[in-house]
Amino acid sequence: MAQWKTVGNGMLEGISQVADLDASKLTVTLAKTLKPIPPHETLTFGNTMSDHMLIAEFDPESGWSSPEIKPYAPLNVYATSSCIQYGTTAFEGMKAYLGPDGEPRLFRPDMNMARLTRSVDRMALPPFNTDQVLALIKQLILVDRRWIPLASEYSLYVRPTVIGTGTGFSVAASDHATLCIMLSPTGPTSAPASKPISALAVSETVRAWPGGTGGHKVALNYSPGFLPLRVAQKQGYEQIIWLLGDDMKLTEAGAMNLFVAVARDDGGIDLLTPPLDGTILPGVTRDSVLTLANAHTARETTLPGLEETLHLHTHERPFTMTDLLRWSADGKLLEVFGVGTAVIIASIGKIGFKGEDIILPTHEGGLGPIAKAFRTRILDIQEGREQWKNWSILVNEL
């Protein structure tokens, strides 16, 4: 059996030489009949697929196959495949937007590819050159660019997925894999900016734990949260805030990174988010919020709606429910919000904990001024109205 090790950008270096992923070998088989594109206002997250998908397969003897763009269709996977039996699945979530120039662009795709490399490695799946993955994503977007909605706040969601396809019940890493890239036009998620969501803080179940997979984007992080979310929804809450440890540290809000804004005595604002300690997903939007907050404080930019002189003091450190309750009682808890690719920014207006509710200040339009500032600036960059640190990358320049 061939073996391999990973070098830069996830590339393969074989002990027995095997083929790495190669975008130059791409073949394209177009659909004979194209599907009608539904009105953008009817789109819901992840429920509509574009006409085509991209597939490449890994065999341990020969390496990665020539990638193929072909009509969207079911995968041919055995029931004994590792992804089905042991959850060996890693994926990414990114979005393509149309700018004012009519050209598609991606938001910070280098961060998605770096995270995909780490997630694939954590699942012990065969690696690949992420530069080639980006080149293939570009080609797929260009083939299906008619699926990118024209309306603001709508986009084409890109889901690169790697699944283990080795067969059998052996409890071991999969030496076969499939890369599948799918596209889905989408609009605002179930957490619209115009309405704060409610969240139940839970400690009986956890999303992630030290030494686990919480810092990676893998399928097995998500499905264990479905039942706790259903329980929270039956109690009248829309989302979950995951607590960890005896001191009940706040970690994430559902599948979103979590931020808390707290008033300081000096007139500034402390902007806190849990640290990347292995239990927190290193989100692209999370990093973007921290970078923009620091840039505002350094006066490298001014966030919309905020005073130029406002100091946003960012902290990546643990904080607990005891802290949250104290800040609320002292009148210093200004905003709590979740961030992520799908939602961008979701304001949290109510937090349930041990039968009581923490009620956050209400704001016209749903988002508080801090969350609104980040959402507006990030969306302006994503949709090409503003340029910032080369975050918005034209697909034809990748």
TrEMBL record:
SUPFAM superfamilies found in the cross-reference section: D-aminoacid aminotransferase-like PLP-dependent enzymes (SSF56752)
Gene Ontology cellular-component terms listed: mitochondrion
Modified residues (N6-(pyridoxal phosphate)lysine): 217
The keyword Transferase appears for this protein: yes
InterPro entries: Aminotrans_IV (IPR001544), Aminotrans_IV_CS (IPR018300), Aminotransferase-like (IPR036038), B_amino_transII (IPR005786), BCAT-like_C (IPR043132), BCAT-like_N (IPR043131), BCAT_family (IPR033939)
BP GO terms, sorted: L-leucine biosynthetic process; L-valine biosynthetic process
Matches recorded under Gene3D superfamilies: 3.30.470.10, D-amino Acid Aminotransferase, subunit A, domain 2
Catalytic activities: L-valine + 2-oxoglutarate = 3-methyl-2-oxobutanoate + L-glutamate; L-isoleucine + 2-oxoglutarate = (S)-3-methyl-2-oxopentanoate + L-glutamate; L-leucine + 2-oxoglutarate = 4-methyl-2-oxopentanoate + L-glutamate
Cofactor: pyridoxal 5'-phosphate
Catalytic class of the enzyme: transferase
Key words, A-Z: Amino-acid biosynthesis, Aminotransferase, Branched-chain amino acid biosynthesis, Pyridoxal phosphate, Transferase
GO MF assignments: branched-chain-amino-acid transaminase activity
Domain of life, per lineage: Eukaryota
Pfam families, A to Z: Aminotran_4
EC number(s) from the headed UniProt entry: 2.6.1.42
Annotated PANTHER family: BRANCHED-CHAIN-AMINO-ACID AMINOTRANSFERASE (PTHR11825:SF44), SUBGROUP IIII AMINOTRANSFERASE (PTHR11825)
Family membership: Belongs to the class-IV pyridoxal-phosphate-dependent aminotransferase family.
Protein name in UniProt: Branched-chain-amino-acid aminotransferase
